[in-house]
Amino acid sequence: MSQRxxxxxxxTRRRASETLGYTPPVRAxxxxxxxxxxxxxxxxxxxxxxxxxxxSTAFVDLGLGEPPWTARAGAAGLAVVYxxxxxxxxxxxxxxxxxxxxxxxxxTLATELSWLLSTVSVVxxxxxxxxxxxxxxxAATIPRVIGELAVTxxxxxxxxVAVAAWDAPVLYVRFNLAVLALAMAVTFGVVWGLGAxxxxxxxxxxxxxxxxxxxxxxxxxxxxxxxxxxxxxxVDNIDxxxxxxxxxxxxxxxxxxxxxGLPALxxxxxxxxxxxxxxxxxxxxxxxxxxxxxxxASPMVSLSYVGLSTLYSVLLGxxxxxxxxxxxxxxxxxAGRRARRDVSAVAVRPEPxxxxxxx
Length: 359
Hints:
By secondary structure, the protein is mainly alpha-helical. The protein has one domain. The chain has helices spanning about 35-55, 70-90, 95-110, 115-135, 140-165, 170-195, 200-230, 230-250, 255-270, 280-285, 285-295, 305-325, 335-345. Helix 7 (about 200-230) packs parallel to helix 10 (about 280-285).
């Protein structure tokens, strides 16, 4: 027997240079990554359609004699689908997070406690908002930009239906702020890895972070300050403008959506064609879906008002985003055209497909 494979003496430890005399068994994969991707995609799509139909009974009577808890059951199913798709997309533990969401939804359906209803409503809105951004793909042309924007809006609006189906007793302002804060925290945590940390932010990311932070502070702080401390004349003028828009065009565009969320999304998915710094721009894009998902949290709001307000916000946000895309201040123009081509050639990074893991 060679010295390398000789048995150890009692009371001694194997040296670091010693190797095992056998190869440890490794369990083979049960399913290939392609099969896993198709299976998860099929389950998510079927569950999304079924959950959306069930949650829609909160607004539309299907005439099938469905029980009164159908809408909330559909909302719970949508929350599980969101968690499964988001966890798989971000490379998380698929056997943990969707199960926790399922248990939370089941407990809420069984007890109908107010605090549980409020909690699962926030969780559903956050999951839908983050998933709406994480499902996007890089877009090099305007038609593809419009297509990716449509994907985000559809996912966000399905989250709106789920939140409305929960019918939780919430205060809209606090609910909206909670969803915004949590959605941005989750998105920034994911983008930290996809965007290579702060050092991968680059000049574009720094410009966007500063500009978006200022815009968000102005929109949220100014709106709250005007309502709380503004003069009656200013408040009356704002109310009159909102009422005029409601009466004449049927809805009011949401500033957080068309000034921050959707322009950041258009800019981010366009930048991701060549550089991963575009993920930092997409991090602020979650503001748009987050505001959309909370649109029907208040039972006093009509469907037509929310629908038209969302339509106007999407059109304005798309227009502003295309302007940012056209006049990108972060483009390294000082180095000249040839240097820009060299930088782009090095920085190109293809991303996985829409239903594949990003990490």
